[in-house]
Description:
Number of strands: 13
Shape: globular
Low-confidence stretches: none
Radius of gyration: 21 Å
Largest sheet: 11 strands, antiparallel
Order of helices and strands: HHHEEHEEHEEHEHHHEEHEEHEEH
Distance between the termini: 49 Å
Strand content: 15-25%
Amino acid sequence: MKPLGAGALKLLRKLAIDPSLTQAQLAKELDVTRSAVNQIWQKLRKERNLSVRSNFDYGQLGLKLVFGWASDREGSDILPKFSRWLTSSPLTVVVMRSVMSSMMDTRVYFEALLPQGQRGMWFLDQLGRFKKSPYNLSLVYGFASHIANHLNLGLFDGRGWDMIDGFRFGATIDSAKGYADVLPDVKTSRQSDPINTSLDDVIVASLIEQDFHATSRQLERNLSELGKPEISERTLRRRLSSVRKKHIVPYVRIENIGLTQRVAISLEEAKELDDSSLSRLLRVQATTLPKARVVHDGSLTSMILDLPESVSWFAISQVLSESAGATSKICTFIADDSQIWTGLYSLLQFLVEHTG
């Protein structure tokens, strides 16, 4: 990994704390010129794919995020069939397959954005079909109530990560258990029930999802690619402003900073545990780790972690397993390289073809 310069690291740390900052605001915060910030920003975008992205309350866009995981014994052909079906669906936005699992099985994690009506119900019907004969796949899923993406650069010096080992990770978890019920709320995107909305809002949101600071010129280009008629710049700005009011939570996306190991953690708890201390503890703990995506509902919690190669996923797995109670099932797995990460834009062509 190419070392990160002091100026770039300082900018990234400031941006990670407040991703909504514009380049002009960053320049003021860092007491440097706007030109200097832009030069660093463009270099980071070119070399490390820097972007400020957005999590949405998808209900405000007429959508629901379904997430879950499936598992099967080693060598079974059912899980590959399920994985291929997920990959082929235009509604699927995340697919991750395991290389090694703490439960000694094979696993697939997935997320999908479901529109209202028959198209969304069809996807759920297919999930139900895989749970029944002849597949009988071990499959759990739910609708997200909270979504969060975290980036913590406090352990990064521009060259490497001062990561906690399994022992210190366990000590941190143990010390926090006693006050999990009073831990601070983590900044997340809360999900509401879907409402009726226009396809135009989804088109605008798909752009803001990829770039929180998207401009009217970018929106004009996206509309043109979708074959939409030309719209005045004033109307484009108004649409961007309208969608930005739909409970957006920005976050920083950055690559090539030494986080080469992707680990998924899945927690399933008894339905009656509305917000268990373990789930809450994991969600808060995610903010202390380098890079994490957390999706949660009443009984299911998933964490996707990007970690340095030096971190022992097995040690973390042991700590978490020991923390799980009799009513909890927890599993960690290392993800392979054949992952799918898309978003609203991948749904657009499908929605355009099936609307109107």
